[in-house]
Amino acid sequence: MGFYVRAVVYYIMDTPQYTFLLPAYKSKYFAEALRSIKKIFQLSVTSAEYNMRPLVSVIIPNYCHARYLDQRIQSVLNQTYQNFEVIILDDCSPDDGASMAVIEQFRPNPHVSHIVYNKENSGSTFKQWQNGISLAKGEIIWIAESDDYCSKDFLQKVMECWEWYPDCSIVQTASCRVNSVGEEIFPDCIYSGKRSHAKGRDFIQYNMLCSNFHIPNASAVTFRREYIEMLPNDYMSYKSAGDRLFWIYMLEHGNICTIDAPLNFFRNHESKVSPQKELDGTQCRENYKINRYLHKKGYVTGVLRLVEYTYYWKYINSFHFDTEDTKKDLMKLWFPRWWMGRTTVSIAERLIKWRGMVTTLHIYFNRNVRQWISC
């Protein structure tokens, strides 16, 4: 019973539309009383109640991150929410046993349910995700990447959201970006600490169109295991953008809750795979395949077509790929007719089809597409 009463207290304290419960002449005393009740319930969680809470399966896929692995695993084991299992996967790290030495220190821990060493490299971190999911017993899955770490109340805050919003397929937190030694890269970032809830399909349409900016790091995300069997498994063949496709698939089955608090620490360092795949164009090619899927499913319509094409035109032309041929190939992939010399007239034809974006067009025929977009 205490579990449900505490939920009601949280809801009154954190939901703006219920502020009518705090009339002006009583608000100070009522708010203090609610805070006291909230504190009492936070301190009165019994072990039986913890056992009733959902089990979380924490999957830690590792590849050559021995330097960061101890901090990663310790940050998981030290969570205030303790009903979880840990599955550690090593994708045949060529580091002379350094990763294995760190991992084996945690084998006796009761939370560690599986430790798996691949004899051959899988070639994709997303295959490792699936390997971990197949071993998981928890209702909620958390992919805790081996070079990141988290605050001790990460799971506590996330699981509260799962209790609040059972219609979600994803619950995520904000991420604080840090460098290789754990120093904040953007120390002036401001976080509201509030929760936001959105419909999954709306989130896809307005936040997943151009890239993965709104779900940038898997370590900040938890998701429901029950939806996994409903998803296509083609994301496992991707080398870079498979996480973006995976989140899109998940959001087609449920909604999303975001906690705007830096409970996850997203490490940026020189040995990450993602920047390398961006340089050789792999990420952009895979994003093209994903966007074809979004078009097919009807997410990219009207003005969103212009948003998509403008973003990728500017991105491909401004990013420094490893070779000039890579840039040319990507331009041909994304803009086959524009690359062949179509002028601003062709853009005007497209803009007319994309109703509602532009009311008046002043088009000079002596300007090419690139000049027009850069205006």
Secondary structure layout plus pairing:
Elements lengths: L1 H13 L12 H17 L3 H6 L3 E7 L3 H12 L6 E7 L7 H7 L7 E6 L7 H11 L4 E4 L5 E2 L3 H11 L3 E11 L16 E4 L1 H8 L13 E4 L17 H10 L3 E13 L5 H7 L2 H15 L6 H16 L5 H11 L1 H4 L4 H10 L15 H5 L2
Parallel strand pairs: 1-2, 1-4, 2-3, 6-9
Antiparallel strand pairs: 4-8, 5-9, 6-8, 7-9
Can you walk me through this structure?
It is a single chain. The protein has helices at residues 2-14, 27-43, 47-52, 66-77, 98-104, 125-135, 154-164, 200-207, 242-251, 273-279, 282-296, 303-318, 324-334, 336-339, 344-353, 369-373, and strands spanning 56-62, 84-90, 112-117, 140-143, 149-150, 168-178, 195-198, 221-224, 255-267. It is an alpha/beta fold and 375 residues long. It folds into 3 domains: 2-44; 50-269, Spore Coat Polysaccharide Biosynthesis Protein SpsA, Chain A, CATH 3.90.550; 298-373, no CATH class. Strands 1, 2, 3, 4, 5, 6, 7, 8 and 9 form a 9-stranded mixed beta sheet that branches. Strand 2, helix 5 (98-104) and strand 3 (112-117) form a beta-alpha-beta unit. The longest helix has 17 residues, at 27-43. The protein is globular and about 60 Å long.
